[in-house]
């Protein structure tokens, strides 16, 4: 089936966080929403059909994790990432962020350290801080417009007796890195050696650009798999974040049982009746959507990059290897964080995620979501350009 990602679909007044809660979350209700990570594109037809079919049944009682949850996860991960999963490894969760919090609650004590790599998706920081644990940031190195891992620093942090978990973001939100086999192996080895459990958030792993390949860190060896909790979901890929369904892969039985027990303690396993039909349809019938989406997004990246180079050369795009979240280096504008937010959000009226939300390493940056029709992207960029000229 052919999808039309150029179509502009009105999302206002649909209880959309991105469109209707932009004032509360980003600070200006009139700003064009290019922030939170969902897409302004219609979901794939099989997903819509599955939800519609379920809705038409007209009884929305309690649901359960039907076997198709596991079989569809197995087939997708095998097909896209070449990793063969066993059905018993796969745990349902109502999202990836709940897993991060639950893992911290299960395997660390207050005061323990959790390693993350800032600048990073801010719920990682919240998951640590809100649970009264300590952020140990193995901050990414930024040089020549690209990001890399500071392995020497990671060795030291992992060796701390208080370090119990590392939360990896691969592909990395917001810097857009797809970590290489060598990088992944080194990180996994360091964690293993120091008894640090690896929690690998791979929610963006389907959205990989030409020339890059996603490798699930746990797929590299059985030893790594035994020390890793991998978080997958169709939610970014197929725009189903509101249906709250993700697949968590935990080969290690001890870790899995402990995670499940903590989930049960919180009574947080109960899923939405529409979640599973959509999940199964997404993972079994929608590869054509993904192929077309990737092409469209890749062209949006090109458009954005070209626009910046031509009209706003002081704003630099960090070349994304994955994700529809663009990390923009705005430091040459010479504004502090409040000034940059005011420039983008209040003056240009474009609602981006502020770079400093991702940690102090994000100062001077902004994250822009380009999963929108090109005409919307163009509108946002022209609004910024108008203000850029006045600087
Ligand atoms: C890296 C990463 N993890 C998790 C999530 C969201 O997780 P969920 O909505 O499944 O809780 C996002 C959404 O932007 C994300 O970028």
Summed up:
Helix content is 41%, strand content 15%.
Account of the 3D structure:
The chain has a 7-stranded mixed sheet with strand order 2-10-9-8-7-3-4, with helices on both faces. The protein has a 4-stranded antiparallel sheet with strand order 11-12-15-14. A two-stranded parallel sheet has the order 1-13. Helix 4 packs parallel to helix 12, helix 5 (97-107) crosses helix 11 (253-265) and helix 13 (287-311) runs parallel beside helix 15 (374-388). It has helices at 17-20, 22-26, 45-56, 68-81, 97-107, 122-130, 151-159, 181-193, 222-226, 235-238, 253-265, 275-285, 287-311, 337-347, 374-388; strands at 32-33, 90-93, 113-116, 134-137, 141-143, 146-148, 163-169, 197-201, 228-232, 246-249, 316-317, 325-329, 350-351, 353-354, 365-369. The chain is of the alpha/beta class. It has 2 domains: 17-44 and 287-388, Aspartate Aminotransferase, domain 1 (Alpha-Beta Complex); 61-285, Aspartate Aminotransferase, domain 2, CATH 3.40.640.10. The model has no long low-confidence stretch (mean pLDDT 97). The protein is globular. The structure holds pyridoxal-5'-phosphate. Pyridoxal-5'-phosphate binds next to loops. Pyridoxal-5'-phosphate binds at residues 37, 95-97, 121, 169, 173, 201, 203, 233, 235, 241, 246.
